[in-house]
Write a structure and sequence with these properties.
The protein is 40% helix and 14% strand. The strands form 5 sheets. The chain has a 5-stranded mixed beta sheet, with helices on both faces. The radius of gyration is 26 Å and the shape is globular. It starts with 10 loop residues before the first helix and ends with a helix.
Length: 539
């Protein structure tokens, strides 16, 4: 499908500008204009901007606006009656030639509602979902469009990487547009100031990491004379153990054995070795003993409060914690590393490279031509104009331009002084963004402040460096029917066994019994079905 020439702003948009002018909003349109096009002056908030009036239009632009219903988490309709929000909606719709009904739920309610919608089949045009069992069942029931043969025809969506395609696909087919995220995002953060206080070297191997945890637990790293610290801070979030077990050679969910067959990570010798090490550091008191019930939402309380000196999670968690230390005047230093060498070289557990998918329902989008228009809409969201509109908003309404030439988001005091809406009316709309853009579109964006913070620079450096160390999930593209039906039960058997083994509730025999229970409960069928799919694909 050829990229169309787009009319950014049409005459109907002028009314929205004039409406804002009479309402007294202070703002400036951020959409790019071509200086060689004929323009019309429009006054808004006391400032004069221009809107193109004479651009060539394509056949597609002569179509009536595409009507869409879009369901998203996080946002709300709280500010819909504000003139700036009406302008925001109009600008987005004009650029994409759409009329949009926005459907909002808070995060907890969203996924409850999603389950009900999957069961009923009465779905909006577009929604956000992960590869849950309910979604896979809906795919089997032909609820969503297969976009595999279409997305490469769109300039921004064509940027989807092969790794993300494989991770997001269902048996080699893609039933939505994955929302791009950093691939090599996981790693370790630890208190460098504690390490220096104790005269230790920065850890690179698993033995050095262990020695650091011992010293952080028993060596009074904060110098307060109390035995009140743990080396490793862990919450009920299981990702910390997933990240660390990868260091020990454990596959990323599905590996390939010596026979060329797929094998689950927990049926490997490396998995058992990793759990022995986890059990050791727990039994020696190097981990907070309440980790299994410690609320994941309170994890930063432990890390920022100085109860624990290290953990494993996304690197940006530890960078944000350093920002907290700096803001609060706490003399703490954070160090980031991508992985620890446990004898298998540097190995990083990747993210999937995406966070959920933007999926298109067949109940509302009924024809191939409508599908193509929806994909064009999602592709348009990767253009600089749309990314800046949704993420930045409007100059002197949500952001200002610094003298150095980059944008700065306005704080509440600045908004009040300007007499503009103080609430964040853009909240939640970024959940719709696929975040795939061509280099040209990325280059056209409103400049952001150059990164100078050393921890942020290190974070970005690790994101790039660690890409070559990420461990692929060889089973990611395939979906076992048995797992769709019984995956929750099967996952619970293994996750509970791992927790119980780390805490010493069960021993080696109990761990192996849990694995056998998994096999008897449908696990053997999952392995067979996964391998049938894997080998049928030519592996």
């Amino acid at each position: 499908m050829k990229r169309k020439t787009r009319t950014r702003w049409i005459a109907g948009l002028l009314a929205a500008f004039m409406l804002l002018s009479t309402a007294g909003c202070s703002g400036q349109d951020t959409q790019a204009t071509d200086p060689e096009k004929t323009t019309a002056a429009v006054t808004t908030g006391g400032e004069t901007t221009t809107a193109p009036t004479g651009e060539e239009t394509s056949a597609e632009e002569n179509l009536p606006p595409l009507k869409l219903s879009i369901m998203l988490p996080y946002g709300s309709s709280e500010y819909d009656n504000e003139e700036i929000v009406k302008k925001f909606h109009k600008d987005l719709e004009t650029y994409t030639n759409t009329e949009i009904e926005w459907i909002w739920y808070d995060l907890d309610m969203y996924y409850e509602k999603l389950t009900l919608l999957f069961a009923s089949g009465d779905l909006p045009s577009i929604l956000i979902t992960g590869k849950s069992a309910e979604f896979l069942n809906a795919v089997q029931n032909d609820a969503f469009w297969d976009v595999t043969d279409y997305y490469k025809d769109y300039k921004n969506l064509n940027e989807i990487t092969e790794t993300v395609f494989l991770n997001a696909s269902v048996n080699g087919r893609l039933y939505g547009i994955p929302r791009s995220r950093t691939l090599a995002r996981n790693g370790v953060g630890y208190r460098l100031d504690w390490l220096n206080n104790l005269g230790l070297k920065e850890p690179e191997t698993i033995d050095e990491f262990y020695d650091m945890l011992v010293a952080f637990t028993n060596g009074d790293p904060d110098g307060n004379g109390k035995n009140d610290t743990y080396g490793l801070g862990v919450s009920s979030y299981a990702g910390t153990w997933d990240i660390m077990q990868t260091w020990f050679g454990v596959p990323n969910k599905w590996g390939v054995d010596d026979n060329g067959d797929l094998v689950p990570d927990f049926l490997t010798e490396e998995y058992d070795n990793a759990l022995k090490w986890f059990r050791k550091i727990y039994s020696e008191g190097l981990v907070n003993p309440d980790f299994a019930t410690y609320p994941a939402g309170d994890w930063d309380v432990m890390l920022r409060g100085g109860q624990a000196g290290a953990s494993a999670d996304v690197l940006d968690r530890f960078r944000r914690n350093q920002g907290y230390f700096d803001t609060e005047g706490i003399p703490a230093e954070t160090m980031l590393v991508g992985a620890i060498d446990a004898g298998y070289g540097k190995r990083c557990l990747p993210t999937l490279g995406y966070a959920d998918m933007v999926v298109i329902s067949k109940s509302k989008v009924k024809t191939e031509e409508e599908l193509k228009r929806v994909l064009q809409f999602l592709d348009d969201l990767g253009d600089a104009e749309m990314l800046d509109l949704i993420e930045r908003g409007y100059e002197n309404v949500t952001y200002r331009m610094a003298d150095e030439g980059y944008y700065v988001m306005l704080n509440e005091e600045e908004k009040t002084a300007l007499g503009v809406l103080t609430g964040d009316f853009r909240k939640g709309y970024n959940q719709l963004l696929p975040y795939w853009s061509t280099p040209d579109e990325t280059e056209k964006r409103i400049p952001a402040e150059p990164v100078t913070d050393p921890v942020k620079l290190l974070e970005q450096q690790l994101y790039e460096e660690d890409k070559e160390y990420v461990v692929p999930n060889y089973g990611a593209p395939y979906t076992s029917p048995t797992y769709v039906a019984s995956g929750t039960e099967l996952d619970t058997i293994i996750s509970e066994a791992r927790l119980n083994y780390i805490q010493g509730i069960i021993d080696d025999v109990g761990l192996q019994e849990a694995k056998e229970q998994w096999k008897r409960s449908g696990g053997n069928d999952v392995i067979k079905e996964m391998n049938d799919l894997y080998h049928a694909a030519g592996n």
